[in-house]
Write a sequence for this structure.
């Protein structure tokens, strides 16, 4: 079959022939309808991600919308390596096979489910914990995942969302979704002051951090508190991505002076079963048009161009048959 193929850790995707997948344990063969080239897809394929197999050649891709032998459209993924979803066909298991609701655009689903779930899961968990979100802080709001986090937070009842990012032009799109925006300059003290001003005295119920590194340190400074009295806040800080750096220094005083809990959201910290439980509700969000993603599509035969376009950022790249 034809597929996008990664020949080694430093190689780009190439269009070529790969052995046909085979099914086992109740699995089935399905045909590609749409598959996104997410940042995590590129990271896994290069061997840089903790989920990488470090065996090549391989077909990249972690999720997709596919068509079954009976014509049903399903959202699926978790394909056994060296196979992935950027191929004409894939063998899927019954454990991750969710029918698309009526009206859901397969391209939007392929583009948005992976980045959107990264915030949807911690947000819904937080709602279950405290009942109402109040103020939500999104650090790295100008990317695809960050933009979806803003939309998700409002959809789940947040009264206010503060979106933080460096790309001033992209922040305009974040503001269009209803968020208060904060532009970062790269100066830690100035950025901490700007984030504090954006919060306007409100302690967020949850912080969704898509970038880590220096912006996280500025956020820690913005959340700092003086005094030994009881803290009326209850902050969940969720680390999701590390585009700005793999490390950030967490001040000891922040952990001692505030009611704050730090966790992560990603493959491993969220189980497949947890994801499957949330998928129907989140697919319904796309079917209803309550969340949207800017998308650019490429045919599978243009896998090399699609891979390069995904590296450039901007719109989410989705591969379709052809």
């Amino acid at each position: 079959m034809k597929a996008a193929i990664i020949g080694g850790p430093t190689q780009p995707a190439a269009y070529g022939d790969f052995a046909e997948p085979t099914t086992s344990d109740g699995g089935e063969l399905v045909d590609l309808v749409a598959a996104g080239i997410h940042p995590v897809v590129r990271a896994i394929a290069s061997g840089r991600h903790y989920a990488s197999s470090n065996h090549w050649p391989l077909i990249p891709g972690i999720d997709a919308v596919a068509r079954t032998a009976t014509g049903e459209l399903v959202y699926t993924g978790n394909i056994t390596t060296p196979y992935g979803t950027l191929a004409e066909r894939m063998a899927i298991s019954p454990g991750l096979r969710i029918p698309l609701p009526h009206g859901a655009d397969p391209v939007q689903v392929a583009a948005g489910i992976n980045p959107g779930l990264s915030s949807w899961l911690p947000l819904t968990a937080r709602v279950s914990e405290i009942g109402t979100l109040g103020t939500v802080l999104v650090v790295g709001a100008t990317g695809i995942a960050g933009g979806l986090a803003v939309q998700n937070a409002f959809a789940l009842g947040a009264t206010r969302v503060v979106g933080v990012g460096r790309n001033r032009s992209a922040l305009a799109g974040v503001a269009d979704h209803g968020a208060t925006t904060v532009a970062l300059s790269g100066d830690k003290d100035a950025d901490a002051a700007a984030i504090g001003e954006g919060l306007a005295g409100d302690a967020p119920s949850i912080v969704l951090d898509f970038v880590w590194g220096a912006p996280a340190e500025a956020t820690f400074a913005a959340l700092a508190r003086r005094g030994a009295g009881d803290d009326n806040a209850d902050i969940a800080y969720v680390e999701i991505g590390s585009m700005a750096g793999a490390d950030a220094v967490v001040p000891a005083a922040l952990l001692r002076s505030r009611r704050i809990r730090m966790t992560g959201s990603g493959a491993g910290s969220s189980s497949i079963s947890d994801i499957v439980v949330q998928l129907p509700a989140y697919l319904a969000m796309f079917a209803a048009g309550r969340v949207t993603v800017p998308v650019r599509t490429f045919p599978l035969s243009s896998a090399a161009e699609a891979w390069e376009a995904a590296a450039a950022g901007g719109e989410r790249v989705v591969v379709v048959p052809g």
About this structure: The chain has a mean pLDDT of 94. The chain has two domains: 2-99+292-320, 114-264. Residues 114-264 form a domain with the Rossmann fold fold (CATH 3.40.50.720). The two ends are 12 Å apart (CA to CA).
